[in-house]
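Please review this pair:
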Amino acid sequence: MILALVGVGLGVALMSTLQSLSEGIDRRVEGAFTELAADIVVSPADSPFGGSFLGGGTPLPANYLDKIKKLSNVKLVYPQVTATIPSQVLGGKLPIGMQVTGVDPKIDPAINGPTINIIEGRSFSKGREVIVGSEVKNQARFTGVNFSLGQEIKVPIFNESVGKTPSNLPKSATTSATPSSSLNKTQNATIAASPTGLKGTGEEVVTLKVVGFFQTNNALFDRILYTDLVTARKLAKVDDEKFSSIRVRATSVDNVNKLGKDIEAALKNGEVEVSVSLSKDILGNVNDTLNIFRNFLLVVGLIAAIAGGISIFIIMLMSVIERQREFGILKAGGWSNLNILLSVIVESVTTGILGSFIGLLIGFGATKVIERYLEEGAAVYSLNLVIFVTGFGILMGVAGGLYPAIKATRVTPMETLKAL
């Protein structure tokens, strides 16, 4: 019986943990969709993944802002400048660099942005200060990067062309992320060689100071470092009054499609070709991808729980075989087949419920550990999840005990007396 409890408990623990992660993902995506459903992203047509994600491409001129503001159904227009801090500068084992986005602190509160959601320290108030998203801080620890208030991050800013790559640098040093789209492999190698500053090869080293941490509970915001527009332009090597992307918020979700077409028409003959993306479409595609991941988690959890149900089946079958004489004596004493059937099933269901309870406790502890190392809300342990897991445990108890129960009803008093 103890083995059956352990089997069911471990299976339910895995299923509940995976499903809590799935629910955490659902809530975060839903929150991001609700917050940004009316947003439109205008970025250079030649920028990778859209200028709001990694920067790059031909910067957008300031007059695009005026053209967009004149359109109907526009609630808010807020430009952004995006750059990337190379992984070598930050240290640790980051596979890529970290995104830094420059925003206007006067406009940011209107979108419930990071500057008004500070949880530690303060927002940036002057140039070369940055605030760090909660998800960035928590996840960076896994790669050996620890952000702290007052920390200084030295980012080298390069000329368009530098000298030859030093011959003593490893080849792997040329595959790193870059602070702007204009850096080449030679510059990347130089960053790897001297992450805290270069002599003779760069224009200057920009020192960024961490002054605060924020949490908006919007996954798209909390994974980024934010600073002012001037500092971001310096990092991305973008000229004054130009931007990596422009976000436009429509007056309502119903007007988004029409406004997107109006923006395309207004900027069609502009000096920089643009790509207009609707946030709800982007989030919809992300949600479709996440659905596959959610289904995968569900299947893995169900397989683990079914394995626990099989343990109930094996234990109950062994128990019935060992207690055949008892069942024969009970039938001789007047017990019906239904009495025998129910007694075995009740025992099996009790095992399933107790195993589910143990699994839920283990799973709850696992989610707290996950939240400690990731962030609060990464795994959600809801009432619906508890009901689903408990119900599944009961189902496994019934399924695991049904055949052994039927086998127990087939024991006859005569066979029991002969065995004695």
About this structure: The first strand starts at residue 39 and ends at 44.
